Amino acid sequence: MDLRTLDRDSKEEVAHLFTSVFSSSEGVQEGRLIGSLASALAARADNQEIICVGAFEDGSIIGAIFFTRLKFDEHVEAYMLAPVAVSTAHQGKGFGQAMIGFGLQELKNRSAALVVTYGDPAFYSMVGFKALSEDVIRAPLPLSMPKGWLGQSLSGEALPALKSRPACVQAFDHPEYW
Fold this sequence. Notes:
This protein has 4 helices and 7 strands; from the N terminus they run βααβββαβαββ. By secondary structure, the chain is of the alpha+beta class. The mean pLDDT is 96. InterPro entries: Acyl_CoA_acyltransferase, GNAT_dom.
């Protein structure tokens, strides 16, 4: 497996991957929604505000994840991990965890202090994420499933309590993702 950061040239294959994976697991409507989100993120991937990591096997994409910058009033380097997709045929084999580990190391190398995500606590706990109260770090928009709000310090210190509600990248600034 080859892991690497992707640029805007990967937009079509990344969007197709997310549409396919989410259509298979969550239904066609959710597949279109998340595929559209992935397309919007990939089109703006700049390796700073929006970072896309891809996993390839035999030259074909088998997984992709996004890290997007969150901007707080407080001075803190923070990112959000979402969405994540691994092709159905490659799920359960550690590819998702490998991509996340690769991406977290990239963020540490860039001196990011923390990462949050919004998803399945059982999966994300395997890569170091812990339940996160909005009393500590607020989500950019109201959460429909608060138990899925998770965080991880990248500095080795406890997550800081941040009072401000962060701004997310434009593609995520829609209630249907929360």
